[in-house]
TrEMBL record:
It comes from Prevotella micans F0438. Residues 1-19 form the signal peptide. SUPFAM superfamilies: L domain-like. This is Leucine rich repeat protein. It comes from the Bacteria. Pfam families: LRR_5. Transmembrane segments: none annotated. The keyword NAD does not apply. Keywords: Signal. Gene3D superfamilies: Ribonuclease Inhibitor.
Length: 476
């Protein structure tokens, strides 16, 4: 009796399973086979699709009808395009779909575009094989966390790939093809923290950007990793054409000193951007900074009193030209081409410049500086042009700096009651022509000729803006 009961249960389960497998044909004539995976919550998986001959567009639905109810499609677990779909140009995966597995799109020689839903979280192994005409892969609007082995092999014509910020892990040879001559760059998002040792193998990449300041944890799907710690995911055996690896500010040292990531450490670069003025403050906590071509760096070491109540004091500026190495934990000002982004090298070997007496302070993370014995200023393009100004309504009592930025801290003993000028240009020229970078006033004093902004000569100026010897000066 017990055996008979077990057999009956097995038959019932089989019949139930078969009853939960169905198909549905959409308005364009595409037949979708699906299986009910959760009757209580009304979830279904699409297992196959058959499109009419000559179809060029296929939309995989996010809902399907079954027994008078509507079921949400959460996964596509089988072939919907491939084999004989030689005319197919575009596939749309609808909203609600969270995962794609098991050759969702097979050999479709003329498929040019796949639209991915914002709900997508997982792309399994071999999900989109042999997409020889696909033009791009844009996952930026999705929630993809994992990409499986050889998820996108044979992407002959893909010119770019955009990953989402949610991506955490990528598996073995995700593109698995030496036939990707058009894909030259990849940007890997900040949350990506685990990758297979061979993740990039076979690509023709020239440039990779890692947005995570910490090198990802490496694993190998077939275990173990190669015995030699000198072998890494950026090896020439995987990426023979790789020229540059970009990492976040202050992250070069972390990549250069991490086993396997240290391979080809000469390729690491960081980037800094300039606004419309061509000046920015900068600071690196863990690594030194080599002044890049076309740029000049500056520090401020003191204030020279003008000796005249109508003339602002002069900042003592030290300039560093291209190739000079600024030590870590040094706040400095960097001048470059306005409205540009340039690359630089950090954590380099060589003789570092002396920054003794530097009055610029910086921070690796957003931070506020304040002290009762100091005055604080930030670099800005103010009424008198590029220079240091009191920040907002803080009146010099404090400043708030963003990560990798610097500000000026002046002890009260030397903080001028009136304005002070910073002659970056003279400092740069001195450094370029003579190598003497500590710039102080060298001209003989002359009589100050003062005018107001209406062009009238003034003998006893009060507070305000004046023209002194041809230069605009603020008297506080």
């Amino acid at each position: 009796m017990k055996r008979v009961f077990i057999v009956c249960c097995a038959i019932l389960i089989a019949l139930t399973g078969r009853a939960q497998t169905s198909s549905w044909t959409d308005a364009t004539g595409v037949q979708f086979d699906f299986i009910i995976v959760d009757a209580a919550n009304k979830y279904a998986h699409i297992t196959h699709a058959t499109a009419p001959t000559g179809a060029t567009l296929l939309t995989v639905p996010g809902i399907v009808p079954y027994n008078g109810d509507t079921y949400t499609v959460t996964e596509v677990t089988g072939l919907v395009v491939g084999g004989y779909d030689g005319d197919m140009k575009k596939v749309i995966l609808s909203e609600n779909i969270k995962a794609g597995r098991n050759s969702v799109v097979g050999y479709a020689p003329n498929l040019e575009e796949i639209v991915f839903p914002s709900t997508l979280e997982i792309i399994g192994n071999f999900t989109f094989p042999t997409l020889v005409s696909l033009k791009y892969i844009d996952l930026s609007n999705t929630k993809v966390r994992f990409i499986g082995s050889a998820a996108f092999p044979n992407i002959d014509k893909v010119s770019y790939v955009k990953f989402p910020q949610t991506l955490r892990r990528i598996s073995q040879t995700i593109f698995n093809s030496p036939f990707s001559p058009t894909l030259k760059e990849l940007v890997l998002p900040e949350k990506l923290d685990t990758i297979d040792f061979t993740a990039f193998a076979g690509l023709s990449l020239e440039e990779i950007t890692f947005e995570n300041p910490n090198p990802a944890l490496l694993y190998h799907i077939n275990n173990p990793l190669p015995n030699s710690n000198t072998q890494g995911p950026l090896d020439a055996i995987f990426l023979s054409q790789l020229q540059t690896v970009y990492v976040p500010a202050d992250a070069t040292k972390a990549y250069q000193t991490t086993p396997r990531w240290s391979n080809r450490s000469n390729l690491y670069r960081e980037k800094v951007s300039f606004g419309t003025t061509g000046y920015t403050s900068y600071y690196l906590e863990n690594e030194n900074f080599e002044v890049p071509a076309g740029c000049t760096a500056y520090i401020i070491t003191g204030i020279t009193p003008s000796g005249n109540p109508t003339t602002p004091d002069q900042a003592q500026v030290t300039a560093f030209t291209t190739g000079k190495i600024i030590p870590k934990q040094t706040g400095f000002i960097l001048q470059g081409t306005p409205s540009s982004t340039i690359e630089y090298q950090a954590n380099v070997t060589g003789t570092e410049e002396s920054v003794t007496g530097n009055l610029l302070v910086g921070t690796a993370t957003e931070r506020e500086f304040s002290s009762a014995s100091d005055k604080y200023y930030v670099l800005a393009n103010g009424d008198e042009g590029i220079g240091f100004y009191k920040q907002g309504t803080r009146n010099g009592a404090s400043i708030k700096l963003a990560a990798h930025r610097a500000g000026l801290r002046l002890p009260l003993a030397i903080a001028p009651a009136k304005g002070f000028t910073i002659d970056f240009e003279s400092a740069r020229k001195e450094a370029e022509t003579t190598g003497i970078r500590d710039v102080r006033p060298t001209m003989q004093p002359r009589e100050n000729v003062i005018y107001d902004l209406q062009g009238r000569r003034v003998t006893n100026p009060g507070r305000g803006i004046y023209i002194v010897n041809g230069k605009k000066v603020v008297r506080e």
